[in-house]
Design a protein that fits this description.
By secondary structure, this protein is mainly alpha-helical. It folds into 2 domains: 6-150; 161-249, no CATH class. 62% of the residues lie in helices and 6% in strands. The chain has 13 helices and 5 strands. The protein has helices spanning 12-27, 36-46, 55-74, 85-106, 111-114, 117-120, 127-144, 161-173, 180-191, 202-213, 218-231, 233-242, 251-261, and strands at residues 6-10, 79-82, 149-150, 196-198, 249-250. It has a 5-stranded parallel beta sheet with strand order 3-2-1-4-5, with helices on both faces. The radius of gyration is 20 Å and the shape is globular.
């Protein structure tokens, strides 16, 4: 059993799919410690309506929980799980969109009309209860599953975290063409010295992996490293000790590797 700390950063896609998995388990009794085959079986036994049967997305959430569970066991529970403030804002927006869509579907409004933003402004709803209350409840359920999300920009982090993350993002932007949100998330991963970033965004996952592993990206990696060492004392200290700075791995890629090394799938 490893004793050192393991640090992971979840992005919006990872947490969104995790909420879908938790919802799916609750629909058939709230037993979260089951794999996908057992979950499907419970759906069939309970004759749950088909709108709950999006197992492609549910599996992605199960993968996140399975991976966090495996990492926690590997590091004897010494694991930090982070979720940035920007990701939380993005998630709340996704939950709002989902609520609007479900409400309009309930009213039998066709998709072509449901997709119009102006129509959604006509829906009267309690944001604190329907959206923020739901997210607060979901975070509590994640804590029961040992997914304790910490906020890098929050009180548990340094006062200047946001400024540091933005400045790191400016360095990365000189060398890699991330989208604005992905740029912030990757900068957050570097700021936290995270071992991995778990995302279900294929484009972001590919860039994370290439920066860390692809020989054709070695000059880009070296340039980012040099700029970080020059501009940020914590990275210089890390380099002086280790002769390199740690670039986060793709959590999804690591999950596949761990699953491949296991004789049978992890159970959450």
């Amino acid at each position: 059993m490893k004793s050192e700390k393991f640090v992971t950063l979840l992005d919006t896609t990872a947490v969104t799919f995790l909420t879908l998995y938790i919802e799916a388990c609750e629909a058939v009794g709230g037993d979260y410690c089951i794999n996908l085959d057992e979950l499907k079986s419970k759906y069939e036994d309970n004759k749950v309506p088909r709108q709950y049967l999006n197992f492609k997305d549910i599996k992605k959430g199960c993968d996140v929980l399975t991976h966090m569970n495996a990492r926690s066991k590997e590091f004897d529970g010494n694991i930090e799980i982070w979720f940035s403030l920007l990701n939380e804002i993005e998630l709340l927006n996704i939950l709002t969109e989902r609520f609007f869509d479900e409400e309009l579907r309930r009213k039998k409004i066709p998709y072509r009309i449901r997709s119009k933003k102006l129509l959604k402004l006509q829906i009267d709803f309690d944001y604190d209860r329907e959206i923020f209350g739901y997210w607060k409840s979901m975070k509590s359920k994640m804590e029961e599953l040992n997914i304790n999300l910490q906020t890098p920009e929050g009180p548990e982090s340094s006062r200047d975290a946001l400024i540091d993350i933005v400045n790191i993002a400016k360095v990365i932007a000189k060398h890699v063409n991330f989208t604005s949100v992905d740029l912030y998330i990757y900068a957050t991963g570097l700021f936290l010295h995270s071992d991995e970033i778990f995302t279900h965004d294929e484009e972001m996952e590919a860039i994370i992996s290439r920066i860390r592993n692809d020989p054709e990206w070695s000059s880009i990696k070296s340039a980012i490293q040099s700029d970080l060492i020059i501009n940020f004392p914590p990275f210089k200290e890390e380099y002086d000790i280790n002769k390199e700075i740690n670039f986060p791995a793709s959590g999804k890629e690591e999950f596949k590797r761990l699953m491949g090394e296991s004789k049978k799938p992890f159970r959450v």
